[in-house]
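Hi everyone,

Forwarding the result from last night's run.
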Amino acid sequence: MTKIGLRAHDLGCHSPEGLVSTVWGAGFDGMQLVCHKALEGHPEGYASAIGEGELKALAAAARAQQVEISLLGCYRDFANPALHAETRDCLTRHMGYAQAAGSRFIATETALAPLAPAECEARQGFLVDFAREMAAEASRRGLTLLLEMVRNHPFNSPALARRVIDATGGVGIGFIFDAANLLYDGDLNPAREAALVESYLDPAITPFIRVIHLKDLILRDTERVMVPLGEGLIDFTPIRRLIAACPHLVALIREWERAEWAKQDCAFMRGLLR
């Protein structure tokens, strides 16, 4: 069953038990976990060492409350060849965290900042090779590596998704789709969004879309301002079609959540699954 989840650190930093209680209390039954952002006492960021006891306590609390740790985030500069060893080591360590916490998925974007189109293209060959390497490691551990699609990052098109599937043999690999991350501000209109979603409605790709990120926004001058789901510029009609077409969808994950929006957003997300 597809879970209704959120990016856990949007609701603050907590003890393992407090985190699960907060997520459950807000109405969600899934979460995307970035350990050092959601768990107390880890100011070193991705360099933080997360203790096995802490992760086991988190897993136990999640089981008790029937909240799924749907995926663990380790968002690194994945497609940068100069950082190959550093990124590999960080992802491998976080795969261990995912195993201890009882999650089956480890997620990353492929850059940490917007890149020019030529730079995105230049990094795509390395991206495919590194995806093959890390998907194999994830599979060896019983996990799946999820790559998140972003317009101005190297992983940014259906064609590249198909290349990654071919390179990995479809083993240990999956994708995160986020319409807002794939659209220019000037393209935030129903026709452009429908065309974008249609380009991913490919039966070669949809089985590998395991998570869909949801956010909604308005434009205030040139600034994106987040709003409750259904109240902004994102058209959820094509997203509903994509949800229905993804046979192995693990979770819908709300990003940029606020406690005061949670009840409304949970109801909206459950409606997308009907």
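The longest helix spans residues 117-140.

Cheers,
N.
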